[in-house]
Amino acid sequence: MVAHTTVPAVPWHLLTLPGVYAPQDDTGLLARALCREAIGPGTDVLDLGTGSGALAVHAARLGARVTAVDIARRAVLTARLNALVTRQRITVLRGDLTAAVPGRSFDVVASNPPYVPSPSVRLPRRGAARSWDAGQDGRAVIDRICDAAPEALRPGGVLLMVHSALSGTDATVRRLSKAGLRTTVADHALIPFGPVLRSRRTFLRGRGLLGDEFAGNDRNDGTDEYMEELVVIRAERT
Known about the structure:
Number of helices: 7
Largest sheet: 8 strands, mixed
Helix content: 25-40%
Number of strands: 8
Strand content: 25-35%
CATH architecture: 3-Layer(aba) Sandwich
Distance between the termini: 21 Å
Radius of gyration: 17 Å
Shape: globular
Number of domains: 1
CATH class: Alpha Beta
Structural class: alpha/beta
């Protein structure tokens, strides 16, 4: 596993409609992982849960043929607008993960799915929380992507997925490995808790997800600054 690193700044300014996930640290980490792959003209890339379309735009700028999918109407509209603004040719489809591209396979599947553990068992059907809430263990969407990945990848194809270590890094590696994919943690970084995780510290402690390893330096107000580990999972179909 590589050493903890800082997250590169996201090198773009895109439109983001209300309720659509804007590019953040996890976006930048996954964008960097895409740059390490041999992406160029002729590479077919699928961006699952595209949100603003930031990763789709990034892959298109690398020369790939890009298909972007999201279940939210506003996200689909946002991604299409950003494709126009950046003058990138991207096919944006509305649908539920790989069900939007039945029978197709890709060289690279990239995904920044909802992964934040939530006190609610039910997944939100609308609003901004739809782009981050993922059930009490944070794996409601991650596990579905793991299960769909083998059929969505061509031989030699690669899945790149970013999520929080709070959602279970080892669980993702085991699930993808069991599916026959050669799986590693390709990158990771520590970032301070954002507003959503800060508001859920009691819930996370109650589920045993928040131990001392997440605490950083004491802040001036006497409280601990908690740190979240982001990981990029790389799974290759051999």
